[in-house]
Specification:
With 282 residues, this protein is an alpha/beta fold. The protein folds into three domains: 4-82; 95-190, no CATH class; 201-282, no CATH class. It has six helices and nine strands. Strands 1-5-4 form a three-stranded antiparallel beta sheet. A three-stranded mixed beta sheet has the order 2-6-3, with helices on one face. The longest helix is centred in the first third of the chain and has 20 residues, at 19-38. The radius of gyration is 23 Å and the shape is elongated.
C-alpha cells in the first residue's frame, strides 16, 4: 500500500486532468500509478509526468497548432499548484485497465511485444537494434512518432535482469488500456558478425566480452598482454580524451571500464593509478 504522502502527490496530479478525462481514464491511470510505484518508479517523477500530461490535456488539445509543447511543460508546474485535492482511489480499478507487455523469451522479445500491441490495437511499432550480449532481448527505450504528443509519458517500464544475470534492464511495459499514442519501442537483438552495436553495456558486466577476464583495475600493460591474444581490436580513452584512440596509455594508467563497439572491437577506459573517473558506459 502506498504511503499517505505518496497518495496525496498522485491524487493531486490526477486531479489536474479535466473532469471528462478523469471520468473516462482516472481509474486506469490510478492503477497504473500504483503498479509503477510498486515497481520502483519514484513518486515525484511519476507525479511530474502526470502533471505534464494534464497540461497537454487542458492546454494543447483545445488549441492544437497554436501552442507549443514546451508551453505545456512550463504550465504543468502552475497546474499542479492550483489543482484542488479530491479523493482519487489509487487501487480501485480493475486489473484489465492496465495492459502488461512482458518479455519472457529474449530471442522472441520483438514478436512478444508486437503480439500484445496488435491484440490491443495499439499504434506501437517495434524496432530491433544490434546490441552487446547482455542487452539482447531487453527494451532499450521508447520514442513518440508525433513530436510534442507526449503519449509516451503514460508508459511504465518494468525492470528486470539482463542476459547474463546483471540487474538494470527493462523487461516489459505497462500501458493504460486507453493508450492512444503513436510510438516506437526499441529492442536489443544479437548483432551479426562485424556489425557495430547501436547500444552497449559495460564490457566487464556479466554476460559481456570481458566479464570474467580479471582485467578491471589492472595496469594497461598487463591488459594488453592478455588482449593481444584475443583477436579483438582495442581502443583507449583516458580522462583527457573525448573519444577513443588506437594509442594505448602507458603503465601509469589502469583499466577502469569500457564498452564494446562490436563483437570484435572494444574501447577501454583508463585512468592514472591514483585517480579513477567515470565514463558513459552502462
Amino acid at each position: 500500500m502506498l504511503a499517505t504522502s505518496q497518495e496525496r502527490l498522485l491524487r493531486l496530479a490526477l486531479r489536474c486532468y479535466p473532469e471528462r478525462w478523469r471520468a473516462r481514464h482516472g481509474d486506469e491511470a490510478a492503477e497504473l500509478a500504483t503498479l509503477l510505484v510498486k515497481d520502483g518508479v519514484p513518486v515525484r517523477s511519476l507525479t511530474w509526468n502526470y502533471c505534464k500530461g494534464a497540461a497537454r490535456e487542458r492546454l494543447l488539445r483545445p488549441w492544437r497548432g497554436h501552442l507549443r509543447a514546451g508551453f505545456a511543460a512550463v504550465a504543468a508546474a502552475a497546474l499542479s499548484a492550483i489543482c484542488l485535492v479530491e479523493p482519487v482511489p489509487l487501487s480501485s480499478a480493475g486489473a484489465t485497465s492496465v495492459v502488461r507487455a512482458p518479455i519472457t523469451n529474449r530471442s522472441e522479445a520483438a514478436a512478444e511485444l508486437r503480439a500484445v500491441f496488435k491484440a490491443h490495437h495499439f499504434d506501437i511499432a517495434v524496432e530491433q537494434l544490434p546490441v552487446s550480449p547482455s542487452l539482447v532481448g531487453s527494451i532499450l527505450g521508447t520514442r513518440d512518432l508525433v513530436p510534442g504528443a507526449g503519449r509516451g509519458d503514460d508508459v511504465g517500464m518494468v525492470s528486470g535482469t539482463c542476459a547474463g544475470g546483471a540487474a538494470g534492464c527493462t523487461q516489459g511495459l505497462l500501458l493504460p488500456a486507453h493508450f492512444s499514442g503513436h510510438m516506437v519501442v526499441s529492442v536489443g537483438r544479437a548483432a551479426r558478425p562485424g556489425e557495430k552495436y547501436a547500444q552497449s553495456a559495460d564490457v566487464f558486466r556479466p554476460g559481456e566480452l570481458l566479464a570474467d577476464s580479471g582485467l578491471l583495475g589492472q595496469p594497461v600493460g598487463a591488459a594488453l598482454a592478455v588482449l593481444d591474444r584475443s583477436h579483438v581490436a582495442v581502443l583507449w580513452q583516458t580522462s583527457g580524451q573525448r573519444s577513443c584512440s588506437s594509442v594505448a596509455p602507458n603503465d601509469n594508467y589502469q583499466v577502469t571500464g569500457g564498452v564494446a563497439l562490436s563483437g570484435k572491437a572494444i574501447c577501454l577506459l583508463a585512468a592514472r593509478s591514483e585517480t579513477r573517473f567515470g565514463g558513459d558506459a552502462k
